[in-house]
């Protein structure tokens, strides 16, 4: 690489560079500024869309009442068309509605859809815990245990072991159920759920 030893030589080189490449630098600058403006516009657009989606979900969720077929259809349409966190929440709301009507097959379908859409680890864990509960109620014990497997977060361990204990107890595997409840009691979590697990564990012992 050539080394320029005097200030005049350096200035001459800079002049020649800009004379030769000036228009390309100008185009590059324009493209760079355009890309930055476009990126900021896209971010603003996405934020506005998310706010609009949140407002739409809130309105639909409030309208979701037992026995209202129209409200269910509206939330189903929203859930089908929305792939972000509000689409997940819509599926969860539909699953809750189906569960109150003892339509466990529909609740499972909604929760499977929610699990497929959920990108956040915590939302994914929540959908799987609810799905495992529904599958347990449907006597799909093996499916419920498999549903719980990917839930590994420390904050969810107590609830995972509580459900796992219920599944194993229903299968008649008392020793494994006892181990699950004991592990759940050793994890962090709400004291109210721990008190319930203690009762379950005592019932197994008896």
UniProtKB/TrEMBL annotation:
Subcellular location field: Cell membrane
Keywords carried by this UniProt record: Cell membrane, Chaperone, Membrane, Transmembrane, Transmembrane helix
Gene Ontology CC, one term: plasma membrane
Residue intervals of the Ancillary SecYEG translocon subunit/Cell division coordinator CpoB TPR domain: 15-205
Family as reported in the entry's similarity comment: Belongs to the YfgM family.
PANTHER family: ANCILLARY SECYEG TRANSLOCON SUBUNIT (PTHR38035:SF1), UPF0070 PROTEIN YFGM (PTHR38035)
Protein name: Ancillary SecYEG translocon subunit
Organism: Xenorhabdus poinarii G6
